Amino acid sequence: MRVLSGIQPTGKPHLGNYLGAIVNYVKLQEEALAAGGECFIFLADLHAISQTHDPAELTQNTREMVATLVACGVDPAKTILFNQAQVPAHAELQWLLNGTARMGWLNRMTQWKDKAGKNREGQSIALFTYPVLQAADVLLYQATHVPVGEDQKQHLELARDIAQKFNSDFCPEDAPLFTLPEPYIPPAAARIMSLRDGSVKMSKSDPSEMSRINLTDDADTVMKKVKKAKTDPEPLPSDEKGLANRPEALNLITIYCALTGKSTADVLSEYGGQGFGNFKPVLGDALVETLQPINARFMELKDDQEALDAILARGAAQARERGIPTLNAAYKALGLVRG
Ligand code: ATP
Ligand code: MG
User: Fold this and answer.
1) Which of 100, 203, 213, 266 is most buried, most CB within 10 Å of its CB?
2) CA 15 to ligand 1 centroid distance, Å
């Protein structure tokens, strides 16, 4: 069992990152250890340069993201925690896989379409080839389980397509190089939506702070954001069918269920018929209860630059070593001569 996932240090991690991905990093880190496997979690700083960014902010966000992940329970003693920029094999393998990935495959990626919007011509090439770097991230370590939110499912499928094509084009049938990775997507919180618009996902890159709950928000900020969250004027329904076509209501219920472990049916039987004025404070309390310990731990860690850099340096050394065999085998399979 090899678990691997990444998160971009493009801003402050939010509730969607937490419920959609980070809780599963922590869960799978334990499962990998118990199974005699390994867990790799990395900061996708090379991905972060695919869109306009401020270099000083990227450096600071990278350290803060390490502090947040550790505060959430990613344990550097159990997980290889590192940033891509210290492991050149990611970029090298991406180049090798660029020979296998097809333009048509990348053109179909919804993240590319969403992030590029109407201005495709003006986007960086890195934004277009982002999924190939992501395939390299995963395939380099022969990952078996990849905990991600639902938005990354399509990229994982692309990674499998690239692996399959490379294996069939360049490897003997009985000795494929790349393991086909499986996405590990939480059924209950796969796609947490923006608090301002129930039709788009909560994102670090959303310009509105009010659209997301950051893991480092204090209790007052959390309560304020929940209070201002967009809703419709109807009271909560008493059963799940009543949530159809009510994306904002569905999102708030989904968040509450994910935080408390309660089922949608139970929550609706308790709050059905009541207005959001009653439900929002209950949701706010559940959020504060989850985030408070993360926040406290983050505050202890965030300013210790030396300790955070040491975690990354150690993780990167381990990652560099783990990636060597696959990278070397990829060069060899392609017939590239290397001394
Ligand atoms: P950006 O807007 O910069 O792309 P992001 O919020 O999408 O940031 P990423 O770093 O791209 O965050 O993703 C990190 C992980 O969090 C991925 O596994 C992704 O699937 C997951 N994730 C991101 N947003 C959500 C969401 N709204 N609900 C569930 N999971 C999410
Ligand atoms: Mg994203």
Assistant:
1) 213
2) 9
For the purposes of burial, counting CB atoms within 10 Å of the CB of 297, is it exposed (0-12), middle (13-18) or buried (19 or more)?
Answer: middle
Q: 10 burial class (0-12, 13-18, 19+ CB within 10 angstroms)?
A: buried
Question: Is any ligand 1 atom within 6 A of the Cβ of residue 138?
Answer: no
Interior angle at CA 126, CA 121 and CA 128, nearest 5: 55
Q: What is the 3-state secondary structure (H, E, C) of 165-199?
A: HHHHHHCCCCCCCCCCCEEECCCCCCCCECCCCCC
Per-run averaged pLDDT (10 residues), the chain, 339 residues: 97 96 97 97 98 97 97 98 98 98 98 96 98 98 97 98 98 98 93 97 95 96 98 95 96 97 96 96 98 96 97 98 98 95
Q: Which residues pair with 263 in a beta bridge?
A: none
Q: How far is the CA of 108 from the centre of ligand 1 (A)?
A: 19
DSSP code at position 275: -
Separation of 335 CA from ligand 1 center, angstroms? 37
Q: What local confidence, expressed as pLDDT, does residue 188 receive?
A: 86
Catalytic residue numbers read 115, 201, 204
Among protein residues, the one with the nearest Cα to ligand 1's atom 18 is: 148
Choose which residue among 4, 5, 17, 154 to substitute to test ligand 1 binding: the one with the highest number of ligand atoms within 8 A of its C-beta. 17
